Amino acid sequence: MDSKKTYHHIPNIRPWVGSNPLSGLFPTMIMLTILPLVSVWLALIIAVSLWVVLLVLRKVAWAKPDYMPTLLTSGVVLLLVGLIYYFIPWLIPSSFYSQIVILTISAIVTHFLKMRLDGKEERPTSQKIDEKVLHRRLLINEHRNQSAHIDLFVVLSLFAAGLLSLLNISPDHLAHRICSWIIVAFTWMFYLIEVLNLYWIRKKLLDEEWVSLVDRQGNAVGRVSRSEVNQVQGAQLPMVRLVAICKDMIYLEHRLCCDLCHYECVDTPFIDWVKESENPQMVAQRLIDERFCGLKRSCPRHLITYQNKHGNNSCLVNLYAVSVEEPDLLITHCNPAEGKWWPVQQICELLEGNTFSRLLCNELPYLEQTILLAERIRERKQEFGCGD
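^ thats the sequence. predicted structure below, dont judge the formating
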């Protein structure tokens, strides 16, 4: 199987049904809604019929295992509610109390499902970063949130029921019907809030930057969202570092702590991850094009590729260099950072301290023996040619 195809799409989030944890509870929500209008047994029959229809659609028409994951929860709730009404109907004198019983059972069953899902959460690895796993993790997180909402809903409903009992209000009183319709309103309000939340999550995923994952040979094996690069296990993150050189000087800026730099230091500003659908050469060219203001395009030159430990992750660093003819051809005032051209000799004098990044300190000897030496030789040849 081609591993690259596995990571091509973001999770297919369906806010109304499928990805919404409450969509599997549709039969239970329908029963809660119609209880103030019809008898308990009629509401239960309608809810069970809807559950059977949704189960058939999930298994046959949709054929997606992650679709409406709480549908089983709804089936268990309806079964327990039916048993309670069959054996002890006298304990539930009004529709309001019936709704509380349904909510309480839903909370208990949801907690059992939550405990089962907690053991299935997976951290991202090179073999598991695909849309199915990301969708499963989304479902687990959203199920946890809805479980907390159901618990809160149950507590507030029990408080209202206890208050009505203390005031000795009859089950036939208007207050019970008002409380019953309040439960209906809040049930669908929670559902709509979750729909909006899933639309927002989907938008964030569409706007998310996806960083490639590579093996030791630099072959793409997957991807990970940029917000989770620090959690990657079993693969390497490809990084591009580009050093701009001009007349025995290197352009450097003060960098703040971020996912590319774990501490404040002075380093080259041309650093980035290799994104999905990019290669290191494209990234290096993009980095210099963003700051280069000359008429003739400056082309980066690949120097070396090496492995480096970056925080808790392993990185495959692609080092590039670009020669700039004049210092003013590079935009040095780039908000919020402001850099300058550093003479190589001054950098060498300050290597003992913590001024520069560790990567730059390790790369400088190699730069001196390659691109910087070549620049010095070229300048001397030009001077000799002019003197001739």
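The longest strand covers residues 313-323.
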